[in-house]
């Protein structure tokens, strides 16, 4: 049997401020290949060149990765603001439609960071552009040096930062075998109001929504606010999630055979 094919969404990026490219972080690709057992294939976050129906006829699962850009506020009826840029409206269009299509067609879907936010918006939910501005919330953004630059050590950037309480008996608790985990934190935007089919299964100690499941999805349809692609070979939480995604890929592949 061939390896399951996993579509990994690309992000718009400009090289040397001149050349428009689509890119994917290698950690996402390696997590799929090395832990889920799939063949990762990047697809463009551009609606004019990405045919969603054709894509879903080709893949056995989809990963919506994290990204620098925020989901555009007009997607949840809020006016945009320059301080919350950059945006990636083309990825928004692909990812939101894709989230609904995956669930409808029973194709495994794993949303990570921005991917969780996209899943929530796709099902009618809203986001807060800067979670740390809500009273009582912690700063969920990545660690920086005193001069404002991103910390150069990835072990510091991706270090576990806070606890997450999981819903007893929920999908995450079953996959991870516990009801409390500790995760990294590299985001500014976060869920404000959950979508109609979005079930909250993990909450940080400050109340930030960290794990979701799409209700009545026929297969794996989970999202996490933390970066689960970081070191899943050694991080047991991230490894179990990518292993569970891999099991869903094989089940989908067998069902489609």
Automatic annotation (TrEMBL):
Q: Which PANTHER family match?
A: GLUTAMINE AMIDOTRANSFERASE PB2B2.05-RELATED
Q: What does the protein in this record do?
A: Involved in the breakdown of putrescine via hydrolysis of the gamma-glutamyl linkage of gamma-glutamyl-gamma-aminobutyrate.
- Superkingdom, natural source: Bacteria
The scientific name of the source species is Bradyrhizobium nanningense
What is the name listed in the Swiss-Prot or TrEMBL entry for this protein?
gamma-glutamyl-gamma-aminobutyrate hydrolase
Give the EC number. 3.5.1.94
Enzyme class name:
hydrolase
Gene Ontology cellular component? cytosol
Which CDD domains does the UniProt entry name for this protein? GATase1_2 (cd01745)
Reactions the enzyme catalyzes: 4-(gamma-L-glutamylamino)butanoate + H2O = 4-aminobutanoate + L-glutamate
* InterPro entries, per the entry: Class_I_gatase-like, Peptidase_C26, PuuD-like
Q: Which GO terms describe its molecular function?
A: gamma-glutamyl-gamma-aminobutyrate hydrolase activity; transferase activity
Cite the annotated pathway: Amine and polyamine degradation; putrescine degradation; 4-aminobutanoate from putrescine: step 4/4
One Pfam family assigned to this protein is: Peptidase_C26
GO biological process per UniProt: polyamine catabolic process
């Amino acid at each position: 049997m061939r390896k399951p094919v996993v579509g990994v969404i690309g992000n718009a990026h400009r090289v040397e401020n001149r050349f428009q490219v689509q890119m994917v972080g290698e950690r996402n690709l390696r997590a799929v290949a090395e832990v889920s057992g799939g063949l990762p294939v990047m697809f463009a976050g551009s609606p004019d060149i990405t045919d969603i129906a054709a894509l879903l006829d080709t893949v056995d699962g989809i990963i919506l990765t994290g990204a620098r850009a925020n989901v555009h506020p007009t997607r949840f009826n809020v006016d945009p603001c320059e301080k919350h840029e950059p945006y990636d409206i083309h990825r928004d269009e692909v990812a939101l439609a894709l989230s609904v299509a995956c669930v409808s067609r029973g194709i495994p879907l794993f949303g990570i960071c921005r991917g969780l936010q996209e899943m929530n918006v796709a099902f009618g939910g809203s986001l807060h552009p800067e979670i740390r501005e809500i009273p009582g919330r912690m700063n969920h953004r990545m660690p920086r040096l005193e001069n404002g630059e991103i910390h150069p050590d990835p072990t510091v950037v991706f270090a576990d930062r806070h606890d997450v309480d999981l819903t007893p008996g929920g999908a995450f608790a079953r996959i991870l075998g516990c009801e409390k985990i500790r995760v990294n934190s590299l985001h500014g935007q976060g869920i404000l109001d959950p979508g109609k089919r979005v079930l909250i299964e993990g909450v940080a100690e400050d109340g930030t929504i960290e794990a979701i499941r799409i209700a009545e999805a026929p297969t794996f349809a989970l999202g996490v606010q933390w970066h689960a692609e970081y070191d899943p070979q050694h991080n047991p939480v991230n490894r179990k999630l990518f292993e569970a995604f891999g099991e869903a890929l094989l089940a989908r592949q067998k069902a489609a055979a």
